[in-house]
Description:
By secondary structure, the protein is α+β, with helices and mostly antiparallel strands. It has one domain (2-119). Helix content is 50%, strand content 18%. It has 5 helices and 4 strands. The protein has helices at 2-11, 17-31, 78-88, 94-107, 112-123, and strands spanning 35-41, 44-50, 54-60, 68-69. It has a 4-stranded antiparallel beta sheet, with helices on one face. It is globular, with a radius of gyration of 14 Å. The two termini are 20 Å apart. 34% of the residues are buried.
Amino acid sequence: MEQFAAWLINTYPLTNDNNRKILKEGLKLFRQGNVIHAYQEGSVMTGKVQDNGQKHVLLDEEIGDLSRCSCGETTLCPHQLATFLSVWSQSKTIASLIDGWKEQSTDNILPTFASAKIKKESNNL
């Protein structure tokens, strides 16, 4: 999950207006309880989002660009973000993700959770 968060933060910086809009819409869907059946199995996260019909989301933690949604967007969409937020919230706080994302966007440094993941992986080599 941390690997997907690091990809998300690096690929979609909040210095971009469109990325902030996706975050705002994804947070809204998540907070309103529109995400159902969100879970992680291995490196894949799946979920369904109620938003003018049901959207089916598949997120690939290892290769974020392979993630997709039935809404038809070819890049990150609010449904994907809402699904990720739902899975993330099962073990971590949303504030920790948002704070790390904001920090990356303003300071251009990796958030502590991404750095810890990289350090852990390098120790396993």
